[in-house]
Amino acid sequence: MQLIDISFLFSGHGFGINTNFVETNIFNLLIVLIIVIVYVGNALVKTIQDRRNTILNYISIVDGRLIKAEQKASLARDELVLAQNMANALHRQLGDVVQREKKSGIDQANDEIRRSEQSKEDTVNFQKQTTVRRFTIQIIQLACEKARTKLREKAKIREFRNIVMNDQIEKYKIATKKKIAARKLAENKM
């Protein structure tokens, strides 16, 4: 057995660690176990007891919540049955309303179709009348334009005739003046 001298740590006491594993292991373990049981055991028992009380408190809280939840579930089931009964009644009423609305909608759609057809016919008739008016106005304008053109041509012809006639009249006047002047000369010579 070898002893390690660690007396310098304890200032002169003959205390040392036995490093022989076979001799000291059981004693060391026994001492450690006694220390653990005495000091740590009480703390461990108290911690376990506190944890047990906490768990029991949580269980009682959860039990209270469970009871409340079961009561709420029961109320919810009753309300569900009531809601289902009301839904069935509403469903029957809605079926009747849907049928009436469906018939009303079909009637309205048919009325809209009739009005649409009438509006379509009115629009077509209006377009026809508008087109006829436009063509009539265009024909009248073309006729007026042709009449104006012809009148202008006739005016030009009349003007030309007037010019020719005025020219002939001037020539006649000149010729007449020459004849009168020649007569006067012949009369004067005579």
Structural class label:
mainly alpha
Distinct helical segment count: 1
Going across the biggest sheet, name each strand in turn: 1-2
Give the termini separation. Answer: 206 Å
Average pLDDT figure = 82
Percent helix: over 70%
Number of domains: 1
Rg for CA atoms: 68 Å
How many β-strand runs? 2
Summarize the structure.
The protein has about 190 residues and is mostly helical. It has one helix spanning about 20-190, and strands at about 5, 15-20. It has one domain.
Task: Write structural notes for this entry.
- This protein has one helix and two strands; from the N terminus they run E-E-H.
- It is mainly alpha-helical and 190 residues long.
- It has one domain.
- Strands 1-2 form a two-stranded antiparallel sheet.
- The longest helix has 169 residues.
Feature tags:
190 residues; mainly alpha; two-stranded antiparallel sheet; 1 helix; 2 strands; 89% helix
